[in-house]
Design goal:
By secondary structure, the chain is of the alpha+beta class. It has 10 helices and 10 strands. The longest helix has 21 residues.
Length: 268
């Protein structure tokens, strides 16, 4: 007798086929309780569900895609455009890629399984990933995964399917990392010391990184000061590679350089 594959396993399979390496499910009510920083274009699950008319959603699928090539971090913005990701004059390759592929999976779930599903890039994706058991929010506020470190970008799918929820991630990966015992490498790597030392837990949302001191806040300045220009990876007049210095310094992410990049490049 052939055992029928569970819907969760089917979803993992279709997600992998669309380029996502990580899959988890978060509880909507848990994410609803989470605070987030102002001015980042975020919204609570209830706000998204009401806006998209999917108030009967029962689960949030969290998908993570490994960013194995720096070209995936390309962004273009018109001067004065909305940097939160919601403005028509802001374009970011990984945002566009994850949401587009999220829609493909959402359409498959709706068509093949009959559950209405809508992707959301606007809820607190980092916390959602931790609630789904996929990683730990590290000292630079990025999600550190055991498999790929912080070299992952995220998308959430709200679905009316009642899926088995993951258990929140309960390991402190930063505390476990021998190379970060004296000083976190992500904190040390920032040329502007924009990251406040210490854990992200217990810090008011949006306060762990001094945003105005981070090069990311100045990549889209109409006329960037020379101080910032040194670390701005410009590809066109208004196009840039987002700064990933702290991201790439994380020891947990080295597996991407050592194994995934050679495999993707055909050198393994």
């Amino acid at each position: 007798m052939v055992r029928k594959m569970s819907i969760e396993n089917e979803l993992i399979k279709i997600s992998q086929e669309n380029g996502f390496q990580l899959f988890g499910v978060a509880d909507i009510s848990d994410l609803e309780k989470v605070d987030f920083p102002d001015g980042r274009g975020m919204e609570k699950p209830s706000e998204f569900m009401k806006r998209m008319k999917i108030e009967d959603a029962k689960s949030i699928i969290i998908l993570g895609m490994v960013i194995w090539d720096e070209g995936m971090n390309a962004a273009i913005n018109a001067s004065g455009g909305d940097f939160s990701g919601g403005g028509a004059e802001y374009y970011n390759l990984y945002y566009e890629t994850l949401e587009t592929r999220g829609w493909r999976i959402s359409e498959w779930i709706s068509r093949e399984k009959g559950f209405r599903t809508i992707p959301s890039p606007t809820v607190h994706l980092k916390v959602a990933a931790t609630l789904a058991g996929l990683g730990f929010i590290g000292h630079n506020t990025q999600v550190i995964t055991p498999e790929y470190g912080p070299r992952v970008r995220w998308i959430a799918l709200f679905t009316t399917a009642d899926l088995e929820k993951g258990k929140p991630f309960d390991r402190d990966l930063c505390a476990e990392q021998p190379l970060c015992q004296k000083e976190s490498l992500c904190v040390k790597s920032c040329p502007y010391r924009a990251i406040i030392p210490g854990p992200s837990q217990g810090v008011e949302p949006g306060k762990k990184v001094e945003y105005d001191t981070c090069v990311v806040a100045h990549e889209f300045d109409p006329v960037p000061d020379k101080k910032w220009e040194k670390y701005i990876r410009r590809i066109t007049e208004r196009g840039f590679m987002e700064c990933t210095i702290c991201n790439r310094s994380c020891p947990y992410g080295k597996v991407v350089d050592d194994e995934i990049v050679p495999a993707k490049s055909g050198k393994q």
